[in-house]
Each structure stands twice: as structure tokens, then as C-alpha cells.
Amino acid sequence: MTSLKAVRGTRDLLPPETELWNRVEATARRVFARYNFGEIRTPIFEDTSLFARGVGEETDIVSKEMYTWEDRARAQSEKSQSLTLRPENTAGVVRAYIEHKLGDTGLLQKLYYIGPQFRRERPQKGRYRQFWQIGAEVIGPPSAGSESPLRDAEVLEMLASFLDELGITGWTLVLNSVGSASDRPKYVAALREALAPVKGRMSPDNQRRAETNPLRVLDSKDPADEAIIATLPKIADYLDDESKAHFAAVCAALDACGVKYGINPRLVRGLDYYTRTTFEFTVGGLSPQRAGAPGTPILGAQNALLGGGRYDGLSEMLGGPKAPGIGFAMGLDRLILTLQAQAEGAPEKSAPVLADAFLAPLGAALDAPALSLARHLRRQGLRIELGDGAFRLKKSFEIANKLARNIILLGEDEHASGILTVKNFATGEQTKIPRDQLAQALQPPE
Ligand code: AMP
Q: Is the full-model pTM beyond 0.85?
């Protein structure tokens, strides 16, 4: 029988790597709390039309990458329905905002999420079919100040602080403004006109986009089309005064707090809902060299750590009230790859976490008392690996030496007297410790 494996583009996350995942998630929760964000958890699957309407039919995500299925009705009272595993989370958050009438509070909603997303992309380093995003959204009625450029700058400053606190070095922020809903048609018309004489020389995908959604041509990653794309009109030349002033205010607020950025007039990002500010944080650099091989880029061909932007019309596109917003999504997988690569280059590598003690019952009759002692120690906050009375002493020592700082021996004598034998592997010292002093004695060094 062939053995079963995780599906292409998905993977298992195992300890000790999951420690790093938890650290990144905990840092996000801690930093976002300082900006007064609360957590939202939306379902992993939604009605397909949410993404078709929200993300845009012509985007790569919706046209090629979604996991969609027809969910059969189970009862007369149910209808069959087209469902989709979420490829991103902003549409779900905005749906929840509308559904729960969060706008009626009159306040800004500041919501963050952490969870898996699904896209049928071609798997490669840093790109998976199930991947994790940490994201946040600031959304609310215009009266709550949701359109203010200060919100954009605050989100960007929060991201810069998060990456710094996490210890990611060498990140770059690039910004652009893709204009408002009223700037967009003028620019799209200009793009269409500029594309008409040249599109015949572009890839089939871009030829199609040039017809259906010319803005998406700018997202193209097709190197053969780059030279043509470089000659296309820039959106900055089509912004109205309000959009220009908005963008200038975002930049001024970032300047004031010392967050460095660059401007990339081609940054439109792959989702239709963006208006005005769009941004990306990238990380360059190479993984450290191994045995004479050249260093490889930390994120392979993918250098975007995170991306986001403003989506002033999304709520209305989904049938909700006017609720401008700004948000971002970062690839948790890519944050981890970056941290791992940067740690490899650093002089000290983090040591694996050892248990405070391995508890070895010396014989099956001592298994139950050992569980009771382990319970006592764990309730004092200690990390305990519980052995098995069927193990020979030598085997217990061998395992304990790999997993723990100490071994506790629980034989008949120890059980009867309540005085345990403890050996510390670092010092080689063996001591007798009464049960009620054990937790104190096993505390990890500061
Ligand atoms: P997007 O939702 O496309 O704006 O992507 C936001 C961020 O999610 C990107 O900058 C990546 O870090 C991450 N991301 C998007 N797609 C993938 C994927 N297939 N695998 C891993 N990370 C991804």
C-alpha cells in the first residue's frame, strides 16, 4: 500500500519549529493590543460569492486559485450552495462587520485575525496552498475617522514596530496610492489605450487582463512582459487633488515618526478592492551560505512579507453601509522563514527546550504514584516528561539525557520515604530531595 502524505502545497508544522510560530503569534497579539485591536475569528469557508464580489472575478485568486465546491443540501430545508475555503480574510471580516452591524456603534472597529488561508498556487519556497496569515483591519463609518490618512500611517507604524520587536532585520516598506473610485476609471481608460497597440506581444494571461481588468496587468510577474509594463502610464499622474493630499498626509505622518519607506508607482496589488494607499513590506537578503554553495534568497522568489491597503468601497461592494477601511495581511510562513534564515546567520542558535525533569518510575507498580507526582510538579509550573515503569534504568537515563535537565528516580524506597533521588545532568550531581521541596529544587535557572 502506498503511504499517505500531506497534500501537495500543505505541510505539517512540528515542534520545535511550532515554538517559533507561537512566539510570532504571541508577539503579534502583544503588539496589536497596545494599539487597542481585538481579535476576530471568522469561518474558514464562506459563500463563494463573497470572494467573487469582494476580491474580484478577474483576480488570479478568484479566477484560478480558489478551493470551491458545491455543498449538497442535506435536508429539504437546505439549499445546495457554492462554498469556498477562504483565500484571504479581509472579505470575511467585512462580511462580519456588515452582518453584526458593527458600524452602528459609530466607532472604529480595530480587528485582527490569525489563521490559515487557502490558494491553489504553484507551490514553491515561501508559497503554499495552505498558508497562514496574521492580519488586521481598521474599519468604520466615515464619521469615526475611518478615511483619515492618520489611520494608514498608524497601521504602517504598528507594522514597523511589530517587525522590529520580532527581530526581523533589513525590511523595506514600499507605498503607493492607487487612487479613489473616481480616479480609477480615468487611469484604467489610459491603461487600456496604452495597452491596445502592445498587448499582442504580451503573455496570453496579460492579453486577457488587458481586456477585462487592465489594472491587473501591473501585478503580472511574467518577466517577458516587464519591459512593456515599464512603459505604461503611472497611476500617480491620474490622482485627483484629494487622493494626492491623502497620500501626502500618510507620508508626512510616517516621516514624523521616523518610519522609512520608498514609493513604487507600480504597486497596485492583486486584489480589486484596494483604493488609495497600498503597501508592501519586503525582505531581501540571502540565506547564509552552506558548504560553498551560493546563498539563496531567504524567501525564494517571494520577497513580500506582507501587503495591504485601503478599501474604502469594499463594504458597499458587499451590500453593506459606507465603511472605509485599511488593513494588511502578513504571511506567517514567510515571517518564520525569514526569522529562521536570519537566526542561522547569527552567531548564537537557540537551544532546544529541555524539560525540567524526566520522572522515571522504577517498576510498573510505581507508574500510578509517578503520575501523581508528575501532576503535583506540573501544577507547580514545571515541565515534566513522564517515563514508564517498564523501562530499564539504563533506557530511562538515555531518554532523560536527551530530553531533560534532571532525572528523578521513583523506586519503592523513594515512594515509601517521600524522598526522591534527583540527578542533574549538567553538574553530574545526585541528591536526595523531599517531595515537598522538589518543585523548588527543579526550578530552571534564571
Ligand atoms: P495577499 O493576501 O495576496 O495580499 O498576501 C499577503 C501576504 O500573505 C503576502 O505578502 C505573503 O506574505 C502571504 N501569502 C500570500 N499568498 C501566500 C502563499 N500562497 N503562501 C505563503 N504566503 C502567502
A: yes
